[in-house]
Amino acid sequence: MIPPVVPVSRRAPAYAARPHRLWSGVERALDTLRDPALLVARLYVAYVFFASGLQSLRDWSGTVWLYENEFRVPLLPPHLAAVAGTAGEVLLPPLLALGLFGRFAALGLFVVNGVALLSYYYALQAPAILFHVIWGILALAAALWGPGRWAFDHWLMAKSRSHTD
């Protein structure tokens, strides 16, 4: 004889509901922190690269000397590499900080950082390499997930949606 089928309750046992509620609260808190964290990451990366770009402009002859003698940028002559690198460090950070064309700026700084790291990797000490890795990860995060809701891009998208409705 086959035993009768006992219906399984669709409700989770009481002991399982509490961790689920707790974890849901943690997820809500993390979601709340996403936009401020993206803003802090954008501002940090923008500051680092903008300060470097300003230093390059302040001592342009030294910058060109570095590109001619220390940095090995593939496919570009040293003077053009100096102009391109400095332009990226000066023009992209304000865009990233404001979150205006944020993904473009973040991706551009990711490339500038990567080229810089590869160009003088052997001249860098381990801590300097680690900083470049951190900056690259933060720039890539902003490129992958966008600059967040605390950005001009978000405001412009919301404004354009309201005009099309």
Strand content: under 5%
| Total discrete domains | 1
Number of strands: 0
What is the element string, with H for helices and E for strands? HHHHHH
Whole-number radius of gyration? 24 Å
Low-confidence stretches: none
> Helical region count?
6
Shape: elongated
Let me know the average pLDDT.
91
Structural class: mainly alpha
- How far apart the termini lie comes to 65 Å
- Fraction of residues in helices? over 70%
Largest sheet: none
Short description:
The chain has 165 residues and is an all-alpha fold.
Q: Tags for this entry?
A:
165 residues; mainly alpha; 77% helix
Describe the protein's architecture and organization.
With 165 residues, the chain is mainly alpha-helical. The protein has one domain. The chain contains six helices and no strands. The longest helix has 45 residues, at 14-58. The radius of gyration is 24 Å and the shape is elongated. The termini are far apart.
